UniProtKB/TrEMBL annotation, chain B:
Transmembrane segments: 65-82, 119-139, 151-172, 178-199
One BP term from GO: protein retention in ER lumen
InterPro entries in alphabetical order: ER_ret_rcpt
One Pfam family hit: ER_lumen_recept
Family that this chain belongs to: Belongs to the ERD2 family.
Example of a GO MF term: ER retention sequence binding
Topology of the protein relative to the lipid bilayer: Multi-pass membrane protein
Subcellular location: Cytoplasmic vesicle, COPI-coated vesicle membrane; Endoplasmic reticulum membrane; Golgi apparatus membrane
Protein name per the record: ER lumen protein-retaining receptor
């Protein structure tokens, strides 16, 4: 399940 | 990671470097809104606190440190080193009109009412309007240096590319975040007027001056 919010994004 | 996010990050990095070099080389921040740069420093500070709590990748960590470092260096150059060239009279946008509503909205509309999540949400909403003082300043002075328009172009392009990144991630990873997407759409829309002037004027070798 991908993270709920794009914390892997800048 | 996908091509849209990578080119988006590189476009963002290019914008930040272009601005820093412009101020450093010309030893002047004429035409630059210090208030927008304060907002960007606030955006990165509130969004990248997770540097202290989680490690995602070297790329992620290094880029965050570069963004934060450049943001504060730019604010320092504007308000300290080259303060004499700062055009405070035209940089008159009231920051509280942005920070207060954005802060309230971040508390009302978020994914999770936790400290880091609220700050992240605040940074997403704030980033979408952080360029307003700069665009407001250009509308007041009626013109912008060509190098400043290149800065704005890459800055606007980065979030537009992120929109494609989110389409890509939705299609291939079944992932999407409504808060980031809505704020990203708003942010990109705010640049549309500038993009039009940039393409019709600057790319034709003319100076960007208003009224169009």
């Amino acid at each position: 399940q991908p993270p709920s919010s794009p914390k892997d994004e800048l | 990671m996908n091509i849209f996010r990578l080119t988006g990050d590189l476009s963002h990095l290019a914008a930040i470097i272009i601005l820093l070099l412009k101020i450093w080389k010309t030893r002047s921040c004429a035409g630059i809104s210090g208030k927008s740069q304060i907002l960007f420093a606030l955006v990165f500070t509130t969004r990248y606190l997770d540097l202290l709590t989680s490690f995602i990748s070297f790329y992620n960590t290094i880029m965050k440190l570069i963004y934060i470092g450049c943001a504060y260096a730019t604010v320092y150059l504007i308000y300290m080193k080259f303060k004499a060239t700062y055009d405070g009279n035209h940089d008159s946008f009231r920051l509280e009109f942005l920070v207060v509503p954005v802060g309230g909205l971040a508390c009302l509309v978020n994914h999770d009412f936790s400290f880091l999540e609220i700050l992240w949400t605040f940074s997403i909403y704030l980033e979408s309007v952080a360029i307003l003082p700069q665009l407001f300043m250009i509308s007041k002075t009626g013109e912008a240096e060509t190098i400043t328009t290149h800065y704005l172009f890459f800055l606007g392009l980065y979030r537009a590319l992120y929109l494609f990144n989110w389409i890509w991630r939705f299609y291939f990873e079944g992932f999407f975040d409504m808060i980031a997407i809505v704020a990203g759409v708003v942010q990109t829309i705010l640049y549309c007027d500038f993009f039009y002037l940039y393409v019709t004027k600057v790319l034709k070798g003319k100076k960007l001056s208003l009224p169009a």
